[in-house]
Amino acid sequence: MRHLIDIMDLSVAEIEDMIAVATDIVEHPEKYREACKYKKLATLFFEPSTRTRLSFEAAMLELGGQVLGFSEASSSSASKGESVSDTAAIVSGYADIIAMRHPKEGAPRVAAAKSDVPIINAGDGGHYHPTQTLTDLFTIRREKGSFENLTVGLCGDLKFGRTVHSLIAAMSRYSGINFVLISPPELKVPSYVKSKYIKEKGIPYRQTTSLDECIGDLDVLYMTRVQKERFFNEEDYLRLRDSYILTPEKMKMAKDDMIVLHPLPRVNEIATEVDDDPRAAYFRQAKNGKFIRMALILKLLEVGNEN
After folding, report:
1. Among 91, 142, 150, 205, which has the highest number of CB atoms less than 10 A from its own CB?
2. Once rounded to an integer, what is the mean pLDDT over residues 126-137?
3. Can 224 be counted among the known catalytic residues?
4. pLDDT value at position 306?
């Protein structure tokens, strides 16, 4: 039995296999319509979500399976004091696979220790978000054709952004990668992420507070929102929330084939006028999340396509 807690739980070869399956699902969805018939996915979301939760549910339904679960902690026994490990032990008796989001770092790993079925980390605090990273990787492959020799700019909240941490880890395994880390000083990438996945691997990088000065060098621009829910001080949030706003004017400075990604939801960091730019890939990215999560469910349930 496999769990997915951290994107590094998957080898490069396994990610390639899932990208191949997800691509086949896009091209031949009819082959997979009953792949998970009689299987159940439980979505245990102790924290709000739109794309991640609904894409997991859509993924399981399109595989012919069923879905149960909850979308907020207040509607579960967590509101009565039940522990994460007890919840996982109970729910693993009702479902074949569990997707869990939790505000506390490490909660899915705790759940995995007590679960009898695979646990998928759907985001744990400011820690990791491996299925968003699979979505990002699938999108980059579809848009750029390769993971190698890319200059990747990560912009906004790089301190609390779990999607950023997971993407840096994943991309660090490919050759020719350059990172540009764009943030206010208060929201820089945590030192442990930078040390483990950039410095120790000798990957070229630079840190800057200016998007304008580097946007022309980027092949991928990964925008993030400043996350109000991660701040203890509202004054700090209000001061930093509009640090970077991507506008059509800024897009004029970018390469013709640069792509813009965003894990969403956005607040003010990408002007809506950018949506019409063909380089704006974030809505395509969100749709891709369903297909790659279908491939992940198939892998963890060890379900093969019999057709």
Report:
1. 91
2. 90
3. no
4. 46
Residue 283: half-sphere exposure toward Cβ, Cα within 13 Å? 9
- The pLDDT assigned to 243 comes to 66
Return the structure tokens found at 266.
């956005």
Choosing from 3, 129, 141, 290, which is the catalytic residue?
A: 129
What is residue 281's predicted lDDT score, i.e. its pLDDT? Answer: 98
Residue 101 designated active-site: yes
Return the bridge partners of 178, or none: 151
- Angle 216-245-155 (CA atoms, 0-180°, nearest 5)? 60
Catalytic residue among 53, 101, 127, 293: 101
Predicted confidence band at 48 (pLDDT cuts at 50, 70, 90)? Answer: confident
Active site residue 80: yes
DSSP state of 245: -
User: What residues does 40 pair with on adjacent strands?
Assistant: 66
Counting every residue, how long is the chain? 307
Beta-sheet pairing, 151-155 with 97-102:
unpaired
Q: Which residues contact 146 (CB under 8 A, 6 or more apart)?
A: none
pLDDT band at 307 (very low <50, low <70, confident <90, very high): very low
Q: SS3 for 289?
A: helix
127 is catalytic: no
For residue 305 the two structure tokens come to 């396509």
- Of 51, 144, 279, 287, the active-site residue reads 51
pLDDT of residue 235: 63
pLDDT tens profile 242-298: 568 899 999 999 999 999 999 988 888 999 999 999 999 999 999 999 999 999 999
Largest CA distance in the chain: 57
CA distance 9 to 6: 5
Of 43, 52, 139, 151, which one is the catalytic site residue? 52
* CA dist., res. 233 & res. 104, Å (int): 18
What single string gives the DSSP state of each residue in 98-133? EEEEESSTTHHHHHHHH-SS-EEEEEETTS--HHHH
The model's pTM is 0.90
Q: Can 28 be counted among the known catalytic residues?
A: no
